[in-house]
Design goal:
It is a single chain. The protein has about 425 residues and is mostly helical. The chain has one domain: Growth Hormone, Chain: A (Up-down Bundle). It has 18 helices and no strands. Helix 3 (about 50-80) packs parallel to helix 5 (about 110-130), helix 7 runs antiparallel to helix 8 (about 180-195) and helix 7 packs antiparallel against helix 12. The longest helix is centred in the middle third of the chain and has 32 residues, at about 145-175.
Length: about 425
């Protein structure tokens, strides 16, 4: 393990960094993927025809806020070497607003939608900041491997939160409780596990960045905007990173749709119960952890672009299987293929951004990556939600159309030249 890490980086510190993936994965697994999304559609919104669209619109609002702020936060973090401080603030925000979701119930749209927007905003902002530590911890030749460690441990964290929630849901249902009774409690479980599991990150992860020379006569906001403007103006010097970020927008749109709407599709199209859906996502998280861990090693061997292309082909096959599934057996196959591809593609994308980013502006460039991912998180789920609304609840058509984003991403990926992009990053460092 030590040979994969940069100089002066200990295995304990790498573990502490990966533990943040462990900690925050509970939020996306329980709130966005497995439990609360279906609860929102069926209970909070009363299973109205517009319910799925309302869920995706709430998430879109949070992602739009992240798109605006992520590059600015990244520029500020680079200028003031403040990644860790900002990470602490985003963690407190996500934990707090996730716990407040426990007050959501039937008809409480006025409360639930703002809480979803705020909790997801802080989650996504923290996701960008923790990713910016990766190039400081790993050697350039092992970015894929170390990124895979983080993603795989993250899926284990999702399993812990989901497993704890499943145990509570099973007990509550045995007591005759309904979703409105037991789902709010899972929000408290998720928030508590997020807070506790993130402690090693703040205890052992070091802020290695040094403050950059500040721009004279500008306050913090003005300086962040100025640095962002400079990055955009110099985008031509990073043509391969720019192309990959465009590619990211497309293929991540498909991934974000699957993450956001998996439980809704399982219950609306495949008629799964809440308990069956949680069990499905639990197993998928195991395959995702395996995919992230193994693919990190494979990516460093076969190359970043071929590796990501392989996962996109897998995603296309998964969409076809899910669309064609008439019973649970084929859908289980599709879901586990999605898990393998999800762990692999998420880890691979983060590693490639780290490879193509200049050393002195990593937080800023990961902020741009976050912007691309969050734009995709608007496009993919909104496309699904809009199609399901206009088609009067045809979730099969919605997932099939969403799959076109993977095809577009694969076409754009072909033009990315990793060697040229890496040379550009080293020249700018």
């Amino acid at each position: 393990m030590r040979r994969s890490l940069a100089r002066n980086v200990t295995p304990r510190e790498a573990w502490a960094w990966a533990m943040y993936d462990f900690a925050n994965s509970g939020y996306t697994t329980v709130v966005i993927t497995a439990i609360f999304n279906a609860y929102f559609v069926a209970v909070v919104a009363g299973d109205q025809p517009w319910a799925t669209f309302a869920w995706t619109a709430a998430l879109a609002a949070s992602y739009a806020a992240i798109m605006f702020t992520a590059p600015l936060l990244g520029a500020y973090a680079d200028a003031y070497a403040a990644k860790k401080k900002l990470l602490a603030l985003t963690t407190i925000g996500c934990v707090t607003f996730t716990a407040l979701l426990a007050f959501s119930g039937p008809g409480s749209l006025w409360l639930t939608i703002p809480l979803i927007v705020l909790s997801n905003f802080f989650y996504g902002s923290g996701e960008n900041l923790i990713a910016a530590f990766l190039p400081e911890l790993a050697r350039s030749s092992t970015l894929g491997k170390v990124s895979g460690w983080g993603w795989s441990l993250g899926y284990v964290g999702g399993l812990v939160s989901l497993g704890a929630s499943l145990a509570y849901v099973t007990w509550a249902q045995a007591q005759g409780q309904h979703a409105a009774d037991f789902v709010p409690a899972t929000m408290l479980i998720t928030a508590m596990l997020f807070a506790l599991s993130s402690l090693p990150t703040f205890l052992f992860l070091q802020e290695r960045a040094v403050p950059q020379p500040h721009l004279q006569g500008k306050n913090l906001v003005q300086e962040s905007f100025a640095r962002l403007k400079q990055t955009i103006a110099q985008a031509g010097d990073f043509r391969d990173l720019r192309r990959f970020l465009i590619c990211t927008v497309f293929y991540q749109a498909g991934i974000q749709a699957v993450i956001t709407l998996a439980a809704i599709y399982a219950q609306q199209a495949m008629h799964f119960t809440t308990q069956q859906t949680i069990q499905l996502v639990f197993v998928v998280n195991i395959t995702a952890a395996i995919g992230a861990f193994l693919f990190g090693h494979l990516q460093d061997r076969i190359g970043h672009v071929p590796g990501i292309a392989l996962t996109l082909v897998g995603w296309i096959v998964m969409i076809i299987l899910a669309w064609a599934a008439q019973g649970p057996d084929m859908f289980w196959v599709a879901a586990n293929l999605a898990g393998l591809c999800m762990g692999a593609s998420q880890s691979a994308g983060r590693a490639l951004v780290g490879l193509l980013s200049p050393a002195t502006r990593r937080a800023e460039f990961f902020g741009l990556w976050g912007l691309a991912v969050k734009l995709s998180a608007i496009l993919g789920p909104l496309t699904y939600g809009l199609v399901s609304w206009l088609s009067q609840g045809d979730h099969r058509l919605a997932i099939l159309i969403t799959g076109s984003y993977f095809i577009a991403g694969l076409a754009i990926l072909i033009g990315v030249n990793v060697r040229r992009g890496r040379r550009a990053a080293l020249r700018s460092a």
